[in-house]
Amino acid sequence: MSAVTGLADRRAVLSRRNPLAKLAAAALLGFGLLFSLDPLTPALALAVDLAAAPLFGIAPQRLSRRYWPLLVSAAGVAAGQLLFTPAGVVDALGLGLRVLAVALPGVIAFASTDPTDLADALVQNAKAPARFAIGALAAFRLMPLLGDEWRLLRQARRARGVDAGWNPLAHVRLAGSLAFGLLVGAIRRGIRLATAMDARGFDSGHLRTAARPSHFTRADAALIAGAALAVAAIVAISVAAGAYHPVFS
């Protein structure tokens, strides 16, 4: 989550929308791409996402600098599809673009959302249990620590002379052991956090008041409706162009 910090301008028009509305809009855009295999449909969705990013307070160039691993992942998926399956270049390109188009709306929604606002919206608007929402908020806040702990574990192993060198298999084994150590540390931290939250009465069962009211307005509903219309327009354009290739065909 450290990559998200400072990414979005909270004063942007769509950045101020209710977090649930942004997540619902992102889910609609992603869901609409799960049933197509052609490259045109996700390409149009990516164009819509990049055009909408400034309205969420995110400049496209900053988004590309922060989220280049997503580009690498999509390229890897497309290359794997091309090398290890009988799919052609068009199908591999469509799969790679679909990975980007499905993930990018969620990236934009979370990058433009304050975690505390999301927890408030879950409790007040979605009527989620306060224990779940506050626990999710705590986990969201602790995610940057995972990156810091990964670096500390790697530096500690180097200090002890444990280094993979140029051996790729040794790198895989080292990464696996580091991931296991990171998992153990995360579980221990989660147990301590849960105990501390219970000790402070987060599981008392009493009705909790909200310091910051969260409202779901007509503008929030309009954002969801706009996402649905965008999905319908993307599919219609792809079908009209003769490029739409549904999964179940």
From TrEMBL:
Keywords, sorted A to Z: Cell membrane, Membrane, Transmembrane, Transmembrane helix
Q: Name one Pfam family in it.
A: CbiQ
**Quick check: keyword Membrane in the entry?**
yes
Q: Name one GO cellular component term.
A: plasma membrane
Spell out where the chain crosses the membrane.
20-37, 43-60, 67-89, 166-187, 221-244
Q: Where in the cell is it found?
A: Membrane
InterPro entries registered for this protein in UniProt: ABC/ECF_trnsptr_transmembrane (IPR003339), ECF_transporter_component (IPR051611)
Which PANTHER family does the entry link to? SLL0384 PROTEIN
| Descriptive protein name | ABC transporter
Species name: Rugosimonospora africana
User: Taxonomic classification, please?
Assistant: Bacteria, Bacillati, Actinomycetota, Actinomycetes, Micromonosporales
